[in-house]
Amino acid sequence: MDRELYDKKVKCPICKNEFTTKKVKSSALRIDKRDTDLYVHYKTVNPYFYSVWVCSKCGYAALESKFNSIKKYHHSLIKENITSIWNPKDYGNKRNVIEAIQTHKLAIHEGNILNWENSYIGGLALRLSWLYKLKGEKELEIKFQKYALTIFADCFSKETFPMAGIDSATMSYLIGELNRKFQNYEESLKWFQAALKDPNIKRKRLLENMVRNQWSTAIEEHKKFKQLNSEDEKCGEESDNESNNIEENEKKQEERTEIEQNSDGNRGRKVRKKFFFRGAL
Ligand SMILES: [Zn+2]
Q1: Domain co-membership, 15 together with 129
Q2: Which domain does 200 fall in, by range?
Q3: Looking at the structure, do residues 99 and 190 belong to the same domain, yes or no?
Q4: Is-contact 95 24, C-beta < 8 A?
Q5: Which end of the chain, N or C, is less packed with Cβ atoms under 10 Å?
Q6: What is the pLDDT of residues 124-160, one digit of tens each?
């Protein structure tokens, strides 16, 4: 596996420290399959593990594509908020999924400190959700996918494309697909429709097929979802009727018991019956 990686020398734009970070040889990348949320499974080493560069000396962390774009007047933000509390740590070796998660969280945190564009943070959040998926942490996977979805939907009309490295048609599809996953079906169909109307899609057959497939899936799921909901409502009504009946029976029973109580003064019997009906509910 090590042969798939090589060392890239990097100079930190803030503290001028020179460090090495691993990169995956593009010749070593072998795609296994793609998930509907655009996550790509690789047969070989996972390039997502190495996409965030971290300066071991000052703690500055950013995606490779963004690493050198930090403005000089922003250096102090990293020095004050990160370097002052940074325990030197070298992420320059082969990374495991935990280290990949740490680097992404660091990059999100610093991106927020630097007030970098929202789509950059959204892209990192989406990658972080994929890393949690790899680690088998479902709740955190969902949490960061929802975070990415909120950001992407919000900045779709505010930022320019490509956004987080994604063109407008693919982004419409992604927002639609994430909405489908979270059962926001109407919203999902709206975004799938936007993807199909996007002129960029004409050059992307694979994407067009994905949109059509997921559109059908969303429609099917929406139908089932509505059916289940109406059954639940029916059940609710039935159980309301049932509980009304039970309450009525209980009332009658109480009246009867009152009479019994009046006749023989047996109060304990009345209490027992009341509890029986409560338990049955
Ligand atoms: Zn540095």
Answers
A1: yes
A2: 168-253
A3: no
A4: no
A5: N
A6: 999 999 999 999 999 999 999 999 999 999 999 999 9
Buried/exposed code over 30-54 (b: 16+ C-beta within 10 A; e: otherwise) = eeeeeeebbbeebeebbbbbbbbbb
Distance 60 CA to ligand 1 centre (A): 6
Q: Same structural domain for residues 22 and 147?
A: yes
Q: How confident is the model at residue 2 (pLDDT cuts 50, 70, 90)?
A: confident
Residue 230's pLDDT is: 84
Q: How far is the CA of 172 from the centre of ligand 1 (A)?
A: 36
> Among residues 150, 166, 182, which one ends one of the domains?
166
Claim to verify: residue 64 and residue 108 sit in the same structural domain = yes
Instruction: Give residue 134 CA to ligand 1 midpoint distance, Å.
Output: 29
Q: How many domains does the chain have?
A: 2
pTM for the predicted model, two decimal places: 0.81
How much distance in Å is there from the Cα of 57 to the middle of ligand 1? 5
Report how far ligand 1's centroid is from the alpha carbon of 132 (Å).
Answer: 27
